[in-house]
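Lab notebook, design round three. We kept the backbone fixed and only want residue identities now. Task for the bench partner: fill in a sequence for the structure below.
Input structure tokens:
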């Protein structure tokens, strides 16, 4: 539980330390949990291959102990979500995740599985994708699972970005970021701010965008769905700010999660 909380908060060093302690336990009962958290860390650092490798090892531990309901249900859910995030084929694990989550009558796992399905479908069927994400949001909201609710909202916002005006995207982004600030979720904040960089670049807010780049520096904040737009935006921002790039990036480095969210929301509020 502490490992999951630290991963969500972005405390990579402490998460790795706790995972190492789990590996050192004699009975090996929590190795799957350790591999899963290390997978989360690798993903946030942009090492997608290692993230999937770690999560597959966690999945294998769950399969070897089917009576351990938590691991047996959650591991295919997590693996489906991260395979979808990295553009790999997640169909088998999505079906398994939905079946096991529904059979266990575990609403949060059901919401996560639908979130994975929505992300996976976003590459091929936008309408079906939004339907799955809406189900994820509805189920998560019904049981107060705010982390998966905001994750699904972030994926949905990206999927609708071509249908909304810059002002509408700005309002929706402010709402999402403030929700993430309230629950203290760093991982989804990385994804949300990665999308916001694209919006700020299009709106000519290059200085603010460069500060966000500094805060994100060294942390992924991207999945295969967003990486192209993100990298193009960063290149555009660097060209626009020129010699001031390092100054803006250093400012971003010095900011806390709450400070960067407040800073970005203030700028987004000026977009019509």
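Proposed sequence:
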């Amino acid at each position: 539980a502490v490992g999951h909380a630290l991963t969500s908060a972005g405390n990579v060093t402490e998460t790795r330390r706790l995972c190492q302690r789990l590996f050192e336990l004699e009975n090996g009962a929590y190795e799957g949990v350790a591999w899963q958290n290390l997978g989360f860390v690798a993903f946030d650092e942009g090492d997608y291959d290692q993230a999937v490798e770690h999560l597959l090892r966690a999945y294998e531990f769950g399969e070897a102990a089917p009576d351990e309901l938590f691991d047996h249900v959650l591991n295919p859910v997590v693996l489906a979500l991260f395979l979808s995030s990295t553009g790999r084929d997640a169909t088998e694990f999505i079906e398994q995740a939905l079946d096991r989550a529904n059979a266990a009558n575990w609403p949060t796992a059901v919401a996560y599985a639908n979130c994975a399905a929505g992300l996976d479908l976003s590459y091929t069927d936008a309408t079906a994708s939004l339907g799955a994400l809406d189900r994820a949001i509805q189920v998560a909201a019904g049981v107060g699972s705010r982390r998966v609710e905001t994750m699904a909202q972030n994926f949905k916002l990206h999927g609708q970005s071509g249908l909304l005006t810059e002002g509408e995207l700005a309002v929706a982004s402010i709402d999402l970021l403030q929700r993430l600030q309230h629950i203290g979720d760093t991982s989804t904040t990385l994804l949300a701010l990665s999308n916001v960089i694209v919006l700020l670049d299009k709106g000519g807010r290059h200085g603010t965008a460069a500060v966000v780049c500094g805060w994100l520096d060294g942390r992924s904040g991207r999945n295969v769905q967003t990486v192209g737009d993100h990298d193009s935006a960063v290149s555009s921002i660097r060209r626009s700010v020129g010699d001031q790039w390092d100054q803006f990036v250093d400012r971003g480095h010095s900011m806390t999660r709450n400070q960067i969210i407040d800073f970005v929301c203030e700028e987004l509020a000026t977009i019509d």
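Keep this in mind before ordering anything: Residues 126-143 form the longest helix (18 residues).
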